[in-house]
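Annotated sample (chain length 112).
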Amino acid sequence: MKPQNSNSAHGARVPESDCVLLGAEAEALFSRFNLLIDELTTGKIRRNKFEPWEIDFLLDALDYGLTRPCVLLSQYREAVRRQLANGVTVPMKLSEFLVSRKKRARMKSTSV
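Output written by the structure step:
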């Protein structure tokens, strides 16, 4: 699964995090993300090989004490789906999602 490097025609190397995943690549990444979420929510992780972003996610989840299935994971999954649909190459960290969620909640409470 290799991201398309949009600036490669100019000879410049673009960091992988700035590259865009297209169609099937984004779907494959989201499928892998869904598998990880499902494994976490069921408590049955059956593999021993992980991508670096998956390890980051698991460590992030442990830092937040996220060990049981909850609505939060569903919301996080939907946010990652939208993010990947927009061409991002790696799912956002759970901590980033939680921070943005808190900011939105604060903005809602101050606008009321």
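Annotation: Helices lie at 23-42, 52-63, 71-85, 94-111.
Annotation: Residues 21-111 form one domain.
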